[in-house]
Amino acid sequence: MSTHVIRHIGELITNDPSVGDGSNVGRIKDAALIVDEARVLWSGYDRDAPAADESIDVEGAAVIPGFVDSHTHVIFAGERSDEFEARMAGVAYDGGGIARTVAATRSTDRATLRDQSLKRVHDLGAGGVTTFEVKSGYELTLSGEERLVELASELSEEVTYLGAHVVPEEFRDDRDGYVALVAGAMLDACAPRARWADVFCDRGAFDVDEARVILASARKKGLGLRLHANQLADIGAISLAIEMDCASVDHCTHVTNEDLEALGSSSTVATLLPGAEFSTRSPYPSARRFLDAGVCVALATDCNPGTSYVTSMAFVIALGVREMGMSVDEALWASTRGGATALRRSDVGHLGVGARADFCVLDAPRVAHLAYRPGSRVVARTYRGER
Ligand code: NIG
Ligand code: FE
Q1: pLDDT tens digits for 266-292?
Q2: What φ, ψ does residue 359 adopt, rounded to 5°?
């Protein structure tokens, strides 16, 4: 393998607290970074940089770890901009539109679905995402969910089985039958290609008891657990996530102080998804409350056609900083190492020695530009190490 030195970095964020200024984000000014095709080999001051086979001069630009987007639904067909417009005019989101995406996805052939999903994957990558999770959940039949999980496994190694998105129309009078299918034959079909299982545990979706049954079965099949919790109402879903040792509890728009205290002493990451509050015109959860309670926070796009058609992690960072009480460093950490922690990954989300060589060069001298210049193309180039 050949080595590459990235020189004249104005501000390097490593997320390795053992290097740099002693902060959580391991910031080094006037830095250099050395990688081979796969891994990080060295970081430090530019003046101390050893020689490498190739030298890339970034002329004072900031460099950050590639974003880890730990919550997406990028595989779907169709769009629901009419619902977005209605919400902007005052209509509340209740999850009912999921059925429209289910109908559109079921009737789309695999090649078309793949092409449409790949466009969104491309957008994520262009904005600096180097690792992303992807959920099933828009077919809600055994063969359909199997098809989505299989397609997802072509796009990412972080595949989540979300047969428990909502109860589909054909099971309206037989909820128990659907829960049994999701926790039984559908799970059996999807588990071989999935790493995670997730349940939308909320008002209008699945309740805590149903979610517990599904998560317990998924764990028996060897899947890791995640939970969509309390986006629309506090139904007690956050305690369930902690009880089940979910890697991540996502949304948490409605959260009590008791939840925060319990999360702070758990190994469950709170993944906040401000694109959903933006697109449903809902109050943002205060990330500050979570951080002050010692909770590990991740930020993710939740890219989906209903509540967050967002593929830009920079936009999510801007919302975290502008609307949720995070500092730039906290929002950047949450979008990189926080996302990695939510996926229980230690090889991505940072640029410590041995990490994957996944990083972004910004068109900016300081990382604050990610929040300071919303809507502009701040991520100039993205590098993803060989797998
Ligand atoms: O994460 N909350 C559940 N699922 C998605 C929304 C799905 C949709 O409306 O299509 C979410 O917000
Ligand atoms: Fe989601």
Answers
A1: 999 999 999 999 999 999 999 999 999
A2: -150, 165
Q: What is the pTM of this model?
A: 0.98
Q: What is the DSSP string of 130-155?
A: EEEEEE--SS-SHHHHHHHHHHHHHH
Q: Is 268 in the same domain as 366? A: no
Indicate which CATH number applies to the domain containing 41.
2.30.40.10
Q: How many whole angstroms separate alpha carbon 9 and alpha carbon 38?
A: 20
Other Cβ atoms closer than 10 A to 96: 11
Render pLDDT for 173-208 as a digit per residue (tens, 0 to 9): 999 999 999 999 999 999 999 999 999 999 999 999
Say yes or no: 72 and 34 in one domain. no
Q: Which residue is closest in CA terms to ligand 1's atom 1?
A: 302
* Burial annotation 156-191 (CB, 10 A radius, 16+ → b, else e): bebbbbbbbbbbbeebeeeeeebbebbbeebbebbb
What is the Å distance from ligand 2's center to 11 Cα? Answer: 33
Per residue in 328-379, pLDDT tens? 999 999 999 999 999 999 999 999 999 999 999 999 999 999 999 999 999 9
φ, ψ for residue 304, nearest 5 deg: -160, 160
- Mutation probe of ligand 1 site: the residue of 93, 102, 136, 304 with most atoms within 8 A of C-beta: 304
Q: Same domain, yes or no, for 136 and 281?
A: yes
Cβ < 6 A, ligand 1 pocket = 95, 97-98, 101, 200, 228, 231, 276, 302, 304-308
Number of domains in the chain: 2
Could you say which ligand is closest to the alpha carbon of residue 275?
A: 1
Pocket test for ligand 1, best of 165, 203, 235, 272 (most atoms within 8 A of CB): 165
Q: Same domain for 288 and 214?
A: yes
Distance from the CA of 49 to the center of ligand 2, in angstroms?
42
Are residues 85 and 35 both part of a single domain?
no
Residues less than 5 Å from ion ligand 2, measured at CB: 302
Residues 139-154 have pLDDT tens digits of 999 999 999 999 999 9
> Which residue range forms the structural domain that includes residue 234?
67-342
The reply to whether 39 and 148 lie within a common domain is: no
